[in-house]
Amino acid sequence: MSIDRDTFEKTSEDELEELSVPDQVLGFLAANDDRAFKAREIASQIGLDEGAVSTALSRLKDRDLVEHKATYWVITDDTERLDGYSGYERATALFNQRLGTEDKESWREHAPEEPHPSVEDEQ
Length: 123
Known about the structure:
By secondary structure, this protein is mainly α. 62% of the residues lie in helices and 7% in strands. The protein has helices spanning 5-10, 13-18, 21-31, 39-46, 50-62, 79-83, 86-99, 104-110, 117-122; strands spanning 66-69, 72-75.
């Protein structure tokens, strides 16, 4: 998996070596939690062998950390399950370091005043 120059310079060698293939896969899916991907797409995006990614996805599925439908994979929406997985924490920390943490207030400033129609349907 390639990293940007800033991450290369600011991240210790131990931190970079810590991220296993499942951690990298889970980190990628977490960063793209609004989409589902095929294993080969994930492999291409994070620069790993498709076989290694497929194996990691199967193991993550066994732990109920990802969901699988047909040929597509997506991260689970069970936040308690994710919080209990230490690899998720390491991957999230690396992505936060690389991309910055989310600013909830900034999200709120740009949120629409009216709820989405699907939210109204649920009530």
